[in-house]
Amino acid sequence: MLLTTQSIRWEIWGHSSLAGLLVCGVALVGGIAYLLPKFVLKQWLTLGISLSTGVLLGDAFLHLLPESLEQIGDSQIVLVEVLAGIVLFFNLEQFIRLRHHQHRTDASTVQPLASMNLVGDALHNFIDGTLIAGSFLVSPAAGWATTAGLLLHELPQEVGDVGTLLYGGYSIRRALLYNLLSALTCIVGIVTVLLAGLWLEAYLIYIMPVAAGGFIYVAASDLIPELQKAAPTRRSWLHSLFMLLGIALMYWLAVNE
């Protein structure tokens, strides 16, 4: 009986770890779209920002908030946590901007919005890890179904994230590296739940509204103003199109979970 229990435990750890590595791998796949010649990349980079804006807003309003309302069951608590997330990310950005100003050099061109995006994405990936581990604790079928949904969900978001990092001043190599490091918090989420058990997952759902607030803040306070700085051209309508595309992708993933 003990051997059987240990065998099941190792099976859960094995499945969860493999699923987590697959989700992390999407962080690298998402950057393939940006392995283009520099002159082409420069022309299309703002469209990546538009896509990222739509993905972040769509993820917040169509995935994280509905899931939070369903799991927590108290709209007042959810909305207070969303506001808390906005305030938290505002203060975090002020801290990042302060450090950026104090340590700025001529070679330092990375904008705070890139750092903000990394923080928000790391928090989201941690939540994904808790979902993966919690699902595998229920059954292997439930775990892999959840993983498949997350893989579909993460791909457009990672493409947008890499675009945001490139626009913020990172090189393609650094953008891929930091995006991958941010994705590795998924493994941290998996380990946290598997070590602590399902009882902790009941409390981790309260992180989702905070993450939603962070995504709303980054999209509305950082990404949209960056798009508005660009001089209007005949191709400006593409920004709206790519933003709507990001929202549409999140909507399609939300209704097909």
Ends distance = 36 Å
How do the helices and strands follow one another from N- to C-terminus? HHHHHHHHHH
Radius of gyration: 19 Å
SS element count, helices: 10
Summarize model confidence as the mean pLDDT.
76
The secondary structure category is: mainly alpha
Amount of helix: over 70%
Strand content: under 5%
Outline the biggest β-sheet: none
Described by the principal axes of the CA atoms, the overall outline is globular
User: Which stretches of 5+ consecutive residues score pLDDT under 50?
Assistant: none
Tally the beta strands. 0
Characterization of this structure:
- By secondary structure, this protein is mainly alpha-helical.
- Helix content is 85%, strand content 0%.
- The chain is built from ten helices and no strands.
- Helix 1 runs parallel beside helix 5, helix 2 (38-72) packs parallel to helix 10 and helix 4 packs parallel to helix 7.
- The mean pLDDT is 76.
Question: Key features?
Answer:
single chain, 257 residues, mainly alpha, 85% helix
Set out the fold topology.
Blueprint: H1 2-29, H2 38-72, H3 75-102, H4 112-138, H5 140-167, H6 172-183, H7 185-196, H8 198-204, H9 207-229, H10 237-255
Helix pairs in contact: 1-4, 1-5, 1-6, 1-7, 2-5, 2-9, 2-10, 3-4, 3-9, 4-5, 4-6, 4-7, 4-9, 5-6, 5-10, 7-8
Give the gist of this structure:
By secondary structure, the chain is mainly α.
